[in-house]
Structures are given as C-alpha cells and as structure tokens.
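Propose amino acids for all 292 sites.
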C-alpha cells in the first residue's frame, strides 16, 4: 500500500515544481536558479545514495560519455528550458504541455526500440497531442500577440526529457536506475554551474527566505526524494503501473497554480488538460490479458 501512497506523493511533488519554478522565475536569473536547484539535489543524493546499501557503481569510459549525454539533456537543457520558459508562461500551461512526455516516450520507444505500439496506446498519443495543442492555442488574446517563447521553451523540456528517458534505458540496466540518475544529475549540475559562472557572474546573490524554500523544494524534494520514490515504485510494481501516476502531475500543477498563483484557467485549457490526462492513462494502460 505504501508504494502507491508514495507514488501519489511523487505526482503531487512534481506538480508543485512548476509552481515553485514559476515563483523563482520572477526573482532569480534562470541559470543561477537552475544551478542552485541541482547543487541542492546533488548534495541530497550524495547523502542518500550510501543509505541504499548497494555498492557504488563504477562506469566505464563509454558509460561516462553516455552519462554526460544524459546530464546535458535531462538536467542541463531541460532546466534551461524550464526556468527560462516559466518566465513567459504560467505553471499550469507548462505542466499541461509537459504532459506530452509519456506519449512521446512511447512513440520514441516504438521508433528506436521496436516496442509494441498498440491501438490503445496510439489513441492515447493522439489525445495527448490534441490536448497539448488546445493548451498552446488556448492563450488569452490574439494568437499573433501571444508570447510563444514560453511555450516553445517548455516544449524543449519535453524533447530533452524524451531523449533522457530513451537513452537511459541501457545504462539503467547496467548501473541501476538510482546510480544512473545520480551520476547524470551530478554531471548536469557541473554543466549548469559552469554556465552560470560564465554567463551570470553578476546575478549571483543570496536568495531571500521564500527563494530558499522554493530551491529546497525543487532540489531536495522535487529532484532527489521524488526520484528515489519513483524508482522504488518502478522496482516494486513495474514501470508501466508506476507511469500511470504521471497523469496526476498536470492535474496537481493546475490546481496549485490556480490556488497559489491566481492563474486563470480557461475552458479551452481545461479541455486540453482533460484530453492530455486521459491520453496519459491510455498510454500507460496494460492490455487486459497482461492484467489477468
């Protein structure tokens, strides 16, 4: 039972990261915020990893290169798009666009690994794409006057995470998912810190208490604890059943954005969110014979 409770908590935590990121986007330089977030995440993982009991994996030189690719996509590029994108778009819209992840990961698995793409899963992908399209086109005011940079950058988050998910599978089998996540986060953190020091030298300043709370939430809880619980769920009940809980991410983000940030939820965006969530469900639904 507790594994399901933790997976629900993970979905709520990841939904809240969009609100925390939106809060930081208004007061901190994006590169600095991303670097500080993952410094906290790296320190948390360094403390938690030895508690797992498994010996520290030693990657080969080829695996280090693969881990660097994962860190550059899943941490460095993803968080650049995340923090810069949230400067121009709302937390609710960002979360609903990111809901494309499961559908595009399933499509990438079919293209690169020959995974079976059932008609039900294909229907789910179509629903996710339709939902994301409604969300992107559901901006208030004229389409031509809309600030599209935020939506495009959040789509960059989606593409970065798809690359991370597709090309991490072999490493996860060889090194273990927790070690793969930890090494890729540590390498991505080094990239973020180097970029922030080179490009944002004048923007480093001591965060205020609200910013520290957001950074601690994003780093320790959203980027370390949630990953550990999510991969523990994969280990206990499998990736497909754990993935169903991803459907709660955009729902919680929309609720938090509406309640905490006073973000407006139009009927078109709400319909797009419903389509995306239903699409995620179909993308992760097991066939009846496998459930039996």
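Proposal:
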């Amino acid at each position: 039972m507790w594994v399901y409770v933790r997976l629900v908590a993970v979905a709520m935590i990841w939904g809240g990261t969009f609100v925390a990121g939106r809060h930081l986007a208004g007061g901190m330089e994006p590169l600095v915020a991303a670097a500080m977030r993952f410094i906290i995440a790296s320190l948390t993982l360094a403390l938690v990893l030895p508690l797992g009991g498994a010996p520290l994996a030693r990657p080969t030189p080829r695996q280090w290169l693969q881990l660097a690719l994962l860190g550059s996509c899943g941490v460095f590029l993803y968080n650049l798009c995340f923090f810069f994108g949230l400067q121009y778009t709302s937390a609710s819209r960002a979360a609903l666009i990111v809901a494309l992840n499961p559908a595009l990961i399933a499509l990438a698995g079919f293209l690169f690994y020959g995974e079976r793409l059932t008609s039900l899963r294909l229907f789910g992908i179509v629903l996710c794409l339709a939902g994301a399209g409604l969300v992107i086109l559901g901006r208030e005011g004229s389409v031509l006057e809309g600030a599209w940079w935020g939506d495009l950058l959040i789509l960059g988050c989606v593409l970065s995470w798809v690359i991370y998910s597709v090309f991490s599978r072999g490493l996860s089998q060889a090194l273990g998912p927790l070690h793969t996540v930890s090494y890729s986060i540590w390498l991505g953190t080094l990239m973020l810190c180097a970029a922030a020091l080179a490009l944002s030298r004048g923007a480093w300043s001591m965060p205020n208490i609200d910013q520290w709370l957001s950074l601690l939430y994003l780093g320790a809880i959203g980027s370390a604890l949630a990953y550990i619980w999510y991969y523990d769920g994969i280990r206990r009940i499998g990736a497909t059943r754990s993935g169903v809980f991803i459907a709660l991410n955009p729902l919680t983000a929309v609720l938090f954005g509406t309640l905490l940030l006073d973000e407006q939820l139009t009927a078109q965006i709400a319909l797009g969110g419903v389509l995306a969530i239903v699409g995620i469900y179909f993308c992760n639904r097991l066939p009846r014979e496998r459930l039996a």
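Residues 141-146, 288-292 have pLDDT under 50 and may be disordered. Residues 2-291 form one domain.
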